[in-house]
Amino acid sequence: MRKFFKILCAASLLCLVANASEGLDKIGMTYVKSPLNVPSIVDKFKGFYAKSFGVPVEYSEITSGAKQTQALASNSLQFLNCVGGTSVILAAANKADIKIISAYSRAPEAFVIFSKDQNIKSPKDLKGKKVAGPKGTILNELLVRYLALGGLSINDVEFISM
Description:
Elements: H1 2-20, E1 27-30, H2 38-46, H3 48-53, E2 57-60, H4 65-73, H5 85-93, E3 130-133, H6 138-149, E4 158-161
Parallel strand pairs: 1-2, 3-4
Helix pairs in contact: 4-5
């Protein structure tokens, strides 16, 4: 994990070289903990970016991809540490200067539904059950799609946003 994160920081450093000439005295970066974004959490705890760049890092907890790309376009932030592909594509289509320098997760392949109940094997088995996850995210969207495979909607489960 540490080796991967150092590679991520190195890739970021290469990208920032162009901005370094602008004399940044701090770096603005998103910090999104859910759904368990380990690289973001470890970076903030260990301060890898601040050490790598030699300037303070100001973290912003912005979970909306649209708001993240707006902040990047306005130069309020220099890095989006957790943003979905759809938001990036829309921002680029609107002429935002966005460069993808690394990725540490891929939807939907990286996501899975966990259950202690061994009887849950299909979307239909979730009817009436409590299902928890981050509302308004790609994970929430994937859950809705998964439920639809079984002829269910989000209203057929007790969804708990967390």
